Amino acid sequence: MDAQAVQALFTRSDGTYLFARWGRPIVPVVFGVDDATLPVVKGAFEAVVALAGHQMAETDPELGANLMVFFVRDWDELRHVPKLDRLVPDLRPLVDRLEAAEANQYRIFRFDAAGAIKACFVFLRMDEHLSAAPAETVALSQAVQSILLWSDQAFQGVSPLARVGEAVVLRPEIAGVIRAGYDRVLPAMAQEPAHALRLAARVVAVQ
User: Fold this and answer.
1) Which whole number is the average pLDDT over 55-74?
2) Same domain flag for 47 and 91
3) 141 lies in a domain?
4) pLDDT tier at 148 (50, 70, 90 boundaries)?
5) How far apart are CA 21 and CA 117, in angstroms?
6) How many domains does the chain have?
7) What spatial distance separates the first Cα and last Cα of the chain, rounded to whole Å?
8) What integer best gives the mean pLDDT of the chain?
9) At 134, phi and psi to the nearest 5?
10) Is the entire prediction scored with pTM above 0.90?
11) HSE, side-chain direction, 13 A CA sphere, residue 116
12) d(CA 2, CA 58)
């Protein structure tokens, strides 16, 4: 993966470059799944966090949990989650937009004063497409897309996952970008495209 390909992963649809990684340990909590699925979802996040060389924790001192994953059957369910509108401003207009677009997933990131990720809210509507996918695949995909602030176009054409035999795994070049993105020499947030050159150099180094 060369610098141009890396840059594309963090260049947004408006042409701006924006990279960010988590600046604090990740504390996930999952809503709307049964007891059998919960370990699958948390296991996927644990695996991706370990890949990044980052940390998880039992609680976040500011937020309690800082990565919240909501599984719903219909977007309207979000309107009835107690106190969710305090965590997600303009929740009702957001739900209106998701319904109008017939979307099946959405992520919201929050950032600290340095621009690093401090919280992420993941919303998944289990439509026909998502319901047909194995829980492991859905969970791994969401963990990957939550570990960095990727471009809004990053995975529109190509999934970050690949099938190897019967298993679904993270594409090695994306795994390399995740590991490189958490190199402590690099900043937790970057807005200059030249950052992609430094990132690409480290992707090569870890392959």
Assistant:
1) 94
2) yes
3) no
4) very high
5) 6
6) 2
7) 10
8) 93
9) -60, 150
10) yes
11) 15
12) 37
Model confidence pLDDT, tens digit, residues 14-52: 999 999 999 999 999 999 999 989 999 999 999 999 999
CA distance 30 to 143: 12
Structure tokens at 117: 């990720």
**Single-letter amino acid code for the residue at 90:** D
3-state secondary structure of 114: coil
Assess whether 43 and 102 both reside in one domain: yes
Question: C-alpha distances in angstroms, 147 versus 107, 127, 195?
Answer: 11, 24, 18
**Parent domain of 12:** 1-21+148-207
Looking at the fold, whether 123 and 42 belong to one and the same domain comes out as: yes
Q: Which of 132, 164, 179 is the last residue of a domain?
A: 132
Q: Are strands 19-20 and 189-190 parallel, antiparallel or unpaired?
A: antiparallel
Of 100, 132, 164, which residue is a domain's last?
Answer: 132
Average pLDDT over residues 89-109: 94
- Give the per-residue pLDDT at 68: 95
Residues 106, 184: one domain?
no
